[in-house]
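Morning run. Coffee first, then this:
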Amino acid sequence: MVEFKISGNLVDYDEAVAFMEARVAAIRAGEADECVWFLEHPPLYTAGTSAKDGDLLDARFPVFKTGRGGEHTYHGPGQRVAYVMLSLKKRQQAPDIKQYVWQLEEWIIRTLAHFGVTGERRKGRVGIWVETSGTEKKIAAIGVRVRHWVSYHGIAINVEPDLSHFDGIVPCGISEYGVTSLADLGLQITKNELDQALEAGFHEVF
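And here it is:
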């Protein structure tokens, strides 16, 4: 049983991490259902476990050091974050983080396909990418942490964020390629429409 939790207001990053920490412990103890939480944050940067100080170009927003994998990421209004708290031991015969990340990628790809967008994996580059204007740009980020084989953190899809906010960092340590959004691709999609597509895609993949 998975609880789908939706927050309409902006959620502070510290509040979100505290919720995830508590929920992961409860899932491991068998005291709570798995959970997928759809939300948005106020503008902020997070620095994952592989983040390089030099990739923070302009700390115009609060910067949070976080335990998820990966490098620097931006979160803010217009970006749909999905935090995924699942028991990998229950869901996989042999817990496999690479397989779990592949599933997160597949979930994003199927969700984007629902809106006619072709999202793709790229070897050596985390996240999901689209071809636009003769180049490739990232449309969704992935950052995970697993504790006692329970996952948390998750994915972020750019719906209609202020893309200039990404200029304060080297997103995920990759400077050769930019970022894009569904709105940047000419699509006007509501949070509710995206949430419905994400929930449907989740059941297909997981």
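The chain is about 25% helix and 30% strand. Good start to the day.
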